[in-house]
Amino acid sequence: MKQLSVFIENREGRLFDVLRILGENDINIISLSLADTNDYGMLRMIVSKPQVALSILRDCGLSATLTQILAIKLPHESGSLGRALAAINDAGINIEYMYGLCADGDEAVLAIKTSDVAQAAKLLKRAGIEQWQM
Amino acid sequence: MSRDEMTVLQNYRLTNTVNHVYHNVEFYRHKMQKIGLLPSDIKTIDDLTKLPFTTKEDLRDTYPYGLFAVPISEIVRIHASTGTTGKQTVVGYTRRDISTWSECVARSLTMTGVGKGDTILVAYGYGLFTGGLGLHYGAEHLGACVIPIATGSTKRLTTMMVDLEATAIACTPSYLLHVAEVLEAEGLLGKLKIKAAICGAEPWSEAMRLQIEEKLGINAFDIYGLSEVLGPGVACDCIHHQGLHIYEDYFLSEVISEQSQTPVAAGETGELVFTTLAKEGIPLIRYRTKDLTDITYEPCECGRTTARIGRFKGRSDDMLIIRGVNVFPSQIEAALIEMGTTLPHYVMEIDRVGTLDVLELKVEVEERYFSDEIRKLEGLTRQIEKTIREAIGLSIKVKLVEPRTIERSTGKAKRVIDKRKLM
Ligand SMILES: [Zn+2]
Questions:
Q1: Mean pLDDT value of segment B268-277
Q2: Which of B216, B403, B303, B279 is nearest to A7 (CA)?
Q3: How far apart are CA B218 and CA B210, in angstroms?
Q4: A39: CA distance to ligand 1 center in Å?
Q5: pTM of this structure
Q6: What's the burial of B155, exposed, middle or buried (CB within 10 Å: 0-12/13-18/19+)?
Q7: Chain B closest CA to A3's CA: distance in Å?
Q8: How many whole angstroms separate alpha carbon A8 and alpha carbon A30?
Q9: pLDDT grade for B83, boundaries at 50, 70 and 90
């Protein structure tokens, strides 16, 4: 799944500027997560039209990129997250970052950025963990 | 011309100039009388160090016409510059001065390969600033076709560059980099006929020059000058880029130690000092430029025997003293370029927190640096901090900012914001 990542400075109103630009161009934001440092933040979003959203943001002079991530479904039962991560970890694949994407009925959906996306997807499938579709 | 022949010419012109100012400029007559010096004491260029210096402050203090050596009726042009400290200085040119100036710029352009048959965009400011009209007259003198586009709309510049098939451009180097970015964004890089850029009016690094050459696929030349001495065209580099050739038949140069005010050995860095040899309007004796460089008298690969000044190390008044350490913006620039192939837009902000000076470097996060992993961005800032710490021996803070948030300028790029002065 393609994730839209945008570099924003920690200035008043920057987050809203990005959301406003996307809204004005009929881009739906399905999920949003903000990781930040003292000076700047990384806005990570799953949006309805990622390629279009990317070019619009770049035209507005923002640094943005599309990143391939895995969105996996985790049943609400103990140990499911551990199983998923173990499957990736045991194969020596790095997890760069992860965050909760959304809750979908009985399941939680988790976004994971790994060093080897294709291989991680295969391993997760083998471990019986399903990918989430929009 | 051999160095011996040059010396004979310089001796002759120096004695003429000294006579001219002694008899026509009260300021110089007083200065010389004070130290008991007569024009006849100056026989050769070896006597140069007997003469007093002239500074920018002298020009300011004698504003407007105090240093003029001819009546205003002989002056055909006035240029002016405003110092950062406020009060402006004016310089005047006789008809012959304008022709000397055109000659110097024409020689510079010839070194860059520009001549009759070329179309040159002069994208310096026109008006009181000497850049625009200086390049304009020099290029016309050569018979090149001049487009006096001046500063303003970059869009109009890129359009004319392509449509009129311009073969050369003259502007500030930082603006040319901006123009290159715009050309790239518009997909016009492949449509250019430009072969040479003549850049000046601000200090720039060798790395920046190479970056311009690579990005535009051209030769980029460094033209030097200052309005007090003449304007652009006092010196320019040739295709070998081994320093800037000084037109020594017009300008007698020295490099002095700022502390002892005595000449340094060839090859050592010091403040560049000029004595004009053929100027009528405002002849200057030992004018202190505040530009820091070194000088060599070795013949150049191109065959010219004129003295060459090295790439500028900065200006003695551009130098920042941060926590007691001398820092030049050019050092920061060199460190940044070392990190990648091209120079990012940056600005240095110096502030005083308590009693401690803090240098913060804002760098725009461009596509090529961009990663959506914060760890990598943090790694990048730490790497920049480390490279610069090693270069200047001072720890600094690097702050990544959004693209295009650092102000672009069509004139001199503003690379330093010193907030300490406001307190
Ligand atoms: Zn040469």
A1: 94
A2: B403
A3: 10
A4: 47
A5: 0.69
A6: exposed
A7: 10
A8: 19
A9: low
Bigger pLDDT: B258 or A16?
A16
Mutate to test the interface with A, among B182, B361, B372, B376 (most CBs of A within 10 A): B372
Residues of A with CB under 8 A from a CB of B: 3, 5, 7-9, 14, 35, 37, 39-40, 42, 44, 61-65, 67, 96-97, 113
**How many angstroms away from the CA of B339 is the closest CA of chain A?**
19
Closest CA to B101 of B140, B63, B159: B140
Evaluate if residue B276 carries a pLDDT over 60: yes
Residues 362-381 of chain B whose Cβ lies under 8 A from any Cβ of chain A:
365-367, 370-375, 377-378
Instruction: Report the residue of A4, A63, A67, A98 to disrupt the B interface, i.e. the one with the largest count of B CBs within 10 Å.
Output: A63
Kindly list the averaged pLDDT for each block of 10 residues, start to end, along chain A of length 134.
Answer: 91 89 93 87 92 92 90 82 85 88 79 90 87 81
Residues B269 and B260: beta-carbon distance below 8 Å: no
Map tokens 């009060």 to a residue: B87
Q: Which residue has the tokens 């990598």?
A: B376
Residue among B97, B53, B17 at smallest CA distance from B273: B53
Give Cα B251 distance to the centre of its chain: 16
Domain A70-126 CATH (choose: 3.90.1510.10, 3.30.70.2330, 3.30.2130.10, 3.40.50.1000): 3.30.2130.10
B421 has a pLDDT exceeding 70: no
Q: How would residue B112 be classed by pLDDT, with cut points 50, 70 and 90?
A: very high
A13-41 confidence digits (pLDDT tens): 889 999 999 999 999 998 899 888 888 88
The amino acid at B125: G
Q: How confident is the model at residue B423 (pLDDT cuts 50, 70, 90)?
A: very low
Q: How far apart are the first and last CA of chain B?
A: 54
Q: Which CATH superfamily is domain A2-67 in?
A: VC0802-like (3.30.2130.10)
Q: Which domains does chain B have, with CATH numbers?
A: 320-422 (3.30.300.30)
Cβ contacts below 8 Å, chain A against chain B, sum to 49
- Its ipTM equals 0.77
Task: State the pLDDT at residue B317.
Answer: 67
| B31-57 average pLDDT score | 95
A2-67 against A70-126: fold identical: yes
Query: What is the residue extent of each domain of chain A?
Result: 2-67, 70-126
Residue B82 has pLDDT above 70, yes or no: no
Compute CA distances B184 → A102, B94, B179, B216, B317, whole Å.
40, 43, 9, 9, 35
Using a CB-CB distance cutoff of 8 angstroms, which residues of chain A are in contact with residue B371? Answer: 65
